[in-house]
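On to our target:
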Amino acid sequence: MLLKRPITAFMLILATLIFGTIALSELSVNLLPEVDSPTLMVRTDWSGAAPREIEQRINEPMEAVLSTVKGLENVHGFARQGQSIISLRFKWGQNMDLSFLNVREKLDQIRFSLPEQADRPQLVQNTASDEPIAVLGITSLNESNPDFNTRLNLKRWTEQVLSRRLEQADGIAQTVMVGAVEPEVQIRFRPEALNLYGVSLSEVESLVSQANLFTATGELREGWYRYSLKIQSRIQSIEDVKDVPLKTLGTGRVLKLSDVAEVRLDEADPTSFSLVDDHEVLSVLVKKEYGSNTVEAYDTLLPLLEELRSQNTNIGITVLEENASFIRNAINNLLQTLLYGALLAFIILFLFLDNWRTPFTIGVAIPVSIFLTFFVMFISDIQLNIVSLSGLTLGIGLLVDNAIIVLENINRHRSGTDSIFEAADLGTREIALAVTASTLTTISVFLPLIFLGGFEGAFFRDQAWTLSISLLASLGVALMILPVLITQFQKKGEEKSAMFGFNRFFDRMRDRYEQSLQWALRRKALFLGVMSVLLVAAIYLFMLVHKSVLPETEPQQLRYQVRLPGNTSLYATQESAESLINRLSSVKQEGQSIRVLGGYTDQTNLSNLSDEGLNKFTMSIPVDGYDMADRVREEMEDYFQQQPGWTAQPLAVQNAMDVLPSASQPPVLFRLVDEDRKQSERLAGRLQEKLRSAGLDIALAKQYEQELDTYQLRFRTQNLLQLGIDEREVIQYLESLTRGSWITDWNRQDENVPIRLVGYDRQIYEPENIVLNLNDRKVPLTRLASIERTSEPEQLERVNQTPVLSYMGDIGFTDWWWYGNDVRRALTDFARETGTDVKMGGAVMGIASLLSDMGLLLLISVVIIYIILSVQFESLRHPLIILAAVPFAWVGSVFILWITGISLNALSFMGILILTGIAVNDSILKVDFMRRYFADTGDLHQAITQAGLHRFRPVVMTSLTTIFGLIPMLLPFGDGYAFRQSLALALMGGMVTSTLLTLYLVPIIFQWVEGKKIKN
């Protein structure tokens, strides 16, 4: 035992503080836990293909094969113009590395059954590292409106210098460019010249491709040596492309490509753009390595940028957006609240305890427990984030509870022993088992989180471990370190003194409590009736309290995804974005810039990919508080009322907070499952009538309502035979005339530049105006094919290999809470009448599932507590008395959330969960004293009275240390305070009612239960 080795105890304290400090500096820092959704995404590009064709020829066969992968829970496919996206969601806990290999194997099996024109399917794993830690803006300082050559040089410098330097740095994995100009060699052929010299497009493609040949053909051997033989490409420059020989003319002259076509280096059709205010910039998304520290990765980035700025004075490098500062500030603020909370808890100790030395002996428990927790977090690879650190902050008051109980028991024995050493030894041994059981009871409330699967388990695991470690550390300090400190710093026979007269004031409060308790015992029915009314009111308010996944923060930025009509080109999308920027420039925050990313910005990010397109852009508008945010929203509404066909969808402000799998979805989705989507569309109106007939005023709006106009060509076979024209020749001619026909890639230094065959005149807007110049004839396309203009959805959706048509319902979580069962019954009746099944989805389902799982966790915790208490008390009745007060403790949490307007979210629910353990602890002390006193004396009334007198001080003391330790978390300063407030308010509100109910409700229930037992 350490009582005989005080120097050892002091060295343990010193070692804990030293190693804890080192561990704190080395802990991985992030805003929220890295919750990696078990999701894989398969993307297949097929340029120019219509959504229906992609669905039939790519999605359907691919989904059939991929659905056989082990552990797969859901297959969600999208088909849109030029692209197929299939999202594979696996069960939580699935080995995603193994699943990745299994999916890759299936893709290799099906690859050759896909259309030849389609690209190879790309498999992307969704991780927390998909979101960029910083967005850089690259501009030319010499030109305000750079031309093609300047933009191309910026792109090459970014790709060859900036990206390579960054990706070599520790913690940085990848950079993605948005708005980069892509060069290509365009061979603009002249049909008249081709016909004049009798050269076909196929011959041009073949000869250019052969000129770019680079291959190893074998080796030469000479005695002991051998030499490789390779053929080098003849294309080293644009001039080499122009000089590609096509044929030898009758005069002996060699016909070159430049004789029949114009060859030049030009900009390829862009797929993305980036704007800062109304200026076009090259944006670079910087992504960190998986599991690396966000703050450290960003700190590594900054000196590299400074070095590059000094070396390239003509290039501007600006940090447009970064998350590290917010994370650093949020964590630092939370660490400050941890320190302030510990100081306030120490002040409460100083007021309550008898002399000036005692608070310091107990106060040691706080820093030692915290720093020991930091050390265990480091060796256990637990992140330092808002959730884990908030758990530690919430436990500040709990860290001294064990020390207070041990101290009081030691003081109780001091008068009957010869030395402080003997009192410390006897008092600690006597209370050790009870304190250990009490600590394990508290831990049992949230320890099940460690074993909980799904999102909740991944999100709260760090917090559960942190709280468990800190409480076990405080238990160790109370049982081993505290007795040593008492023997070293307290003196035998030291007189008690009242700190600032506080104890005299507290004694008067205890006397008044005794009087009020007697009054309540005489009016049990009235008191229980009032408590029941409060409980019913809390249940009603629970229905009304706003519910969300995470707390809502004061807006500093608004993000919108803007969708234009489906056929809008990227150039028109960019012009529209510039127009909207000019409209909003007067209402945004001064000194800040509006940022826009449009087109296909990040093809590796699953959360963004399914919502990107050439007709879409994402806008980030800086604001300062709620008033400015409301003005921006009003301006947006006014602008979009003037733009028919435009839609704007609000997005999460910070993707790092958007951790729930369904958080990015609309509130409620009704998915009509039917092979015939036209039938589903006709039934949508009937579904809405069905909902309204059930008393549900829900308006339905199609989720993907935009449509694309396409031209469908059907060849006139007889005319083709009469003219001697091959179908493949027509297809090749049209491909070159419209989007350009890819021939080969020219390896230019460190980049591959496509060489593309394109029509000389690309200004064709109607297919009826196309005239093909083939075989010395000018043939209108209308003679070779019938042309029909049709309309089809921009995006087709499939869920679990079945076509669906999704409709958004304007119903919030509160309405769903009240009327969810009515909606389900209406959908069941609708399916029975029409034969069309309707599946539910959306963010509301995610929140409901989250609250349901958390409620189940709460129930499991209560059952575990009951089991522990039954073993501790050797009784099935007394644990029920303790647990009866727990629901009433939740009353304060619900009331304070309703009064303050703060939502019931994952973090506030965690506060309520921790409150359950604290309320149980206070009740245990009360019931244990009453039970033992009643067993010794047989006087029930006296047992309750004495328990009130003796336990009033520790109950109020532990409650005040917890409440005062949480006060700094309520202060609205610094980044991330909304997270702190949600946790602290839920716990503080419940602590107030928990303390009152422990002091009054538990004695009343105990008297009622034991009184009935006596009568029986």
